Amino acid sequence: MRTTVELDEDTAAAVAALRREGRGVSEAVNELIRRGMLVEQRRAPFTPRTRSLGLRVDVSNVAEALDILEGPTAR
After folding, report:
1. How far apart are the C-alpha atoms of 31 and 3, rounded to whole Å?
2. pLDDT in tens, 11-70
3. Domain-embedded: residue 68
4. Fewer beta carbons within 10 angstroms: which end of the chain, N or C?
5. In terms of Cα–Cα distance, which of 3, 24, 2, 28 is closest to 14?
6. How far apart are CA 72 and CA 64, in angstroms?
């Protein structure tokens, strides 16, 4: 497939570095793309923020619990 792309300075420098090693432009670009696809995306573990509301809620009666937490007009 043939296409035209505009490279940012940092990516153009990475392609140029691979070209100095004797690779062609297409080979260099494909190698850099493959390297990027192999990188595992690591996300920070989710940590919920909690705060005390200062009240206890009995959840055996869901409607009553919702009234306490959201107010009777929230329905």
Report:
1. 17
2. 999 999 999 999 999 999 999 999 988 888 788 889 999 988 787 767 788 888 788 778
3. no
4. N
5. 28
6. 9
Q: Take residue 67 and report the two structure tokens written for it.
A: 């009234």
3-state helix, strand, coil in the chain (%, to 5): 50, 0, 50
Give which of 10, 9, 14 is closest to 29, Cα–Cα. 14
Query: By residue range, what is the domain housing residue 25?
Result: 9-38
Q: Evaluate whether residue 29 is within a structural domain.
A: yes
In a domain, 74, yes or no: no
pTM to 2 decimal places: 0.51
71 within domain boundaries:
no
What is the DSSP secondary structure assignment for residue 44, as one 8-state letter? P
Q: How many CB atoms lie within 10 A of CB 15?
A: 19
